[in-house]
Each structure stands twice: as C-alpha cells, then as structure tokens.
C-alpha cells in the first residue's frame, strides 16, 4: 500500500508550488520539499529503537512528508547525549530500525538517519529528567572532546582526544553508516552542528588544540572532512549524503557563516549532496535572536556561494506560505520543520491543500477527503 507523490497541479496547466515540486537526489526522488527535521526523543534503552519510534516516525510517512530524518543516532555508547538516546553503534540496532524503514517504505515514504557523537555534551540528562551531567551511579560515563573545556560548569569535563581517539570515532561513523544501509535507510546525515563533537572541532571556542586538528580553519575542519570521507566511502554512491552544520556560534570569536560557506565548498567536493543549515549550540554564552525564518539567511548565504550544493533551511519555518517563500526566494532547495511536525504530523497534506495541490493520501485515509 503506497502513498503517491503529491505532484498534482492546482489547476490544469498551472505552475506547481515549489514545495510540491519533486527533487531528485541520485537515485532518490523526493516527492516534495517538506522534510521532518531530526528531533531527539530520549526514548531508547541501550540505543534500541522501539514501538514509540515506529509510531512517532511512521506517522510522518502517513502524513506525506517528503523525507523523514530520525533523531541523532549515536555512533558509539560514549557519543550519546543522554542514556536514553537512539544508537547505531551495534548490529543489534539494525533490525528494530529496519522495522521502521520497512513501514515508511510500505507507505511510499523516504527516511534517513542522523549519525552523531555528542562529544563534551554527552552523558547529560534528558530535558525532563534533570539538568547537567549524569553521574556514574545513574548511568553516566566519561566524555571526550577536542580539549578539556566543559560546555558548562554543570556539564561533564571532557578528556582531550588523542589522535587514536579521532581515528576510532571516524571508524565508528563509517561502521554506523554501514549499519544504516543494512537497516534500509535512504539517506545518511552526519551531525556536525549544535555543539556536538564535530562542531566542537570546528569552533575555536571549543577547540584550543595545537596539533593538526586545531588552530587555523583547515585544521579545525580536518576531523569533519575525514569523517565525511570515511562515511562516503561506505555509503552507496547512488544514495545521498547530508551534513548538518551550525552556520554560526552566535558568539564573539566563534565559528562564523563565512567559515561555514568555506566549509560547504569543501564538503561538496567530498561527495556531500545536501547541507542542512542550522546554528548555535556550541556555547552557553550564545546570544541568539530567534524568530520566524531566523536561520534562513544563513542557508541563503551558503546557497549563493556554493550554488551546485543542495541546501536545506530550518528554524521556525511554520506555515506553508513561509516554506514556499523560502524556496521561491532561492534561499534553499529543501525546508526542514521540527516542532511544526510535532504539532501536526499531517502538515504536508494541509500545506498541499493551502497551496492548491491535491494532497497525497494513503488508501486507508482516502475516505477522509479534503
């Protein structure tokens, strides 16, 4: 039972809204440009997906999202944000995730997994369970980072990574990508944003190393490029690879949109197909001015400088009109929504109706009509 692509024009001969114009990425064709952004759910045990994840992610396939991205899946136990994080560090994680990808595909959907390592922001409580570091007696662990600076005084103090640690984590990302293929995912996204490990290496505020992984831009970008290279080497070339970045730290002396644009051009040559442009998360001293579409200018800047790289915008994109305008302005090729999809898993179908497109409905929901 499939859910057809939403590609019916609003009227005979009318121009299709860009939000419902398919996008081809290698062998995949996304039926629309509405993407479910990765959202941590803190609902796993030992990294395993369960019935919650099946229902949570499956509802977006029934709702017609163009692509569903899972929450961050840790590439190693130490890479979890919290003890309840999803994981892809062991073969036992493959089958439960495969149940989810099978369900999504059965209803015509596409799904990707975000691979992550939390670095110095690991071993912390889930938002509704507490704040700061989880102690060893409650299941916490030693965290690692580019240096020994903690994210905050309430967070764990990391151990500075050695060159061997860097090689090990790089191999962990590649191994997780292999498992992602076995689990049936259509897309892999490497998480290099929001103050987690790969972002920590990028930012001079978190990376004070003096070796080949610290100092000038080229050195700070080295770890991420090595990880992307390792993932691309094992991830099938006919399937797209995404990377999520924070375009700015929102803090003086931190990672900037200029460096993010420079990085984008390097990632394009490493076989990255889509850059998922977010911001922030690196320092507790960040000063963010949030509001509707507040991160879209960062995506637009990178899209303008690296036009042959697909870019995805995210950040308080809430209405169909806003999403369509982002695409019409050429600021991005895809729009990613998080809280908006939490509030309305069928947002894509509502957006189709508002933009004058016949919504795609699974057979079992067809009698609802519009």
Give the helices and strands, then pairings.
Elements lengths: L22 E3 L2 E3 L3 E3 L14 H12 L4 E8 L11 E2 L6 H13 L4 E6 L27 E2 L13 E2 L2 H20 L4 E6 L4 H6 L14 H4 L1 H13 L6 E6 L10 H13 L4 E5 L17 H10 L4 E5 L5 H9 L5 E4 L1 H5 L3 H8 L16
Parallel strand pairs: 3-4, 3-13, 4-5, 4-6, 6-9, 7-8, 9-10, 10-11, 11-12, 12-13
Antiparallel strand pairs: 1-2
Helix pairs in contact: 1-2, 3-6, 7-8
Concise overview:
Residues 19-355 form the NADH:flavin oxidoreductase/NADH oxidase N-terminal domain. With 370 residues, the chain is α/β, with parallel strands linked by helices.
Structure description:
The protein is α/β, with parallel strands linked by helices and 370 residues long. It has one domain: TIM Barrel (Alpha-Beta Barrel), CATH 3.20.20. Helix content is 31%, strand content 15%. It has helices at residues 51-62, 94-106, 163-182, 197-202, 217-220, 222-234, 257-269, 296-305, 320-328, 339-343, 347-354; strands spanning 23-25, 28-30, 34-36, 67-74, 86-87, 111-116, 144-145, 159-160, 187-192, 241-246, 274-278, 310-314, 334-337. The chain has an eight-stranded parallel β-barrel with strand order 3-4-6-9-10-11-12-13, surrounded by seven helices. A two-stranded antiparallel ribbon has the order 1-2. Helix 1 (51-62) packs parallel to helix 2 (94-106), helix 3 (163-182) runs parallel beside helix 6 (222-234) and helix 7 (257-269) packs across helix 8. The longest helix has 20 residues, at 163-182. The two termini are 20 Å apart.
């Amino acid at each position: 039972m499939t859910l057809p692509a939403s590609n019916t024009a609003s009227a005979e001969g009318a121009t299709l809204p860009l939000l419902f114009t398919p996008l081809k990425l290698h062998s995949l064709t996304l039926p629309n440009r509405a993407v479910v952004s990765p959202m941590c759910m803190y609902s796993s045990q030992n990294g395993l997906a369960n019935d919650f994840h099946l229902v949570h992610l499956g509802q977006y396939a029934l709702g017609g999202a163009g692509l569903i991205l899972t929450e961050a899946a840790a590439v190693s136990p130490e890479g979890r944000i919290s003890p309840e994080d999803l994981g892809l560090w062991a073969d036992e994680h493959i089958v439960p995730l495969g149940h989810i990808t099978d369900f999504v595909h059965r209803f015509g959907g596409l799904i990707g997994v975000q691979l992550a390592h939390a670095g110095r922001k690991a071993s912390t409580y889930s938002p509704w369970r507490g704040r700061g570091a989880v102690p060893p007696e409650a299941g916490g662990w030693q965290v690692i980072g580019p240096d020994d600076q903690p994210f905050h005084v309430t967070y764990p103090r990391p151990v500075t990574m050695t060159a061997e640690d860097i090689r090990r984590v790089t191999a962990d990302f590649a191994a997780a990508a292999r498992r992602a293929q076995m689990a049936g995912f259509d897309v892999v996204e490497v998480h290099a944003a929001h103050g987690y490990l790969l972002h920590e290496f990028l930012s001079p505020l978190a990376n004070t190393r003096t070796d080949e992984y610290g100092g000038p831009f080229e050195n700070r970008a080295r770890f991420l490029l090595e990880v992307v290279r390792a993932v691309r080497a094992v991830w099938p070339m006919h399937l797209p690879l995404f990377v999520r970045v924070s375009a700015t730290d929102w803090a003086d002396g931190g990672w900037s949109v200029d460096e993010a644009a420079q990085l984008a051009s390097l990632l394009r040559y490493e076989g990255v197909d889509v850059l998922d442009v977010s911001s922030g998360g690196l320092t507790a001293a960040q000063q963010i001015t949030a509001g509707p579409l507040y991160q879209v200018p960062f995506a637009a800047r990178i899209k303008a400088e690296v036009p042959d790289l697909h870019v995805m915008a995210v950040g308080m994109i809430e209405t169909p009109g806003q999403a369509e305008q982002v695409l019409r302005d050429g600021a991005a090729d895809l729009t990613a929504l998080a809280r908006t999809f939490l509030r309305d898993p069928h947002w894509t179908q509502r957006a189709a109706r508002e933009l004058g497109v016949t919504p795609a409905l699974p057979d079992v929901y067809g009698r609802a009509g519009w």
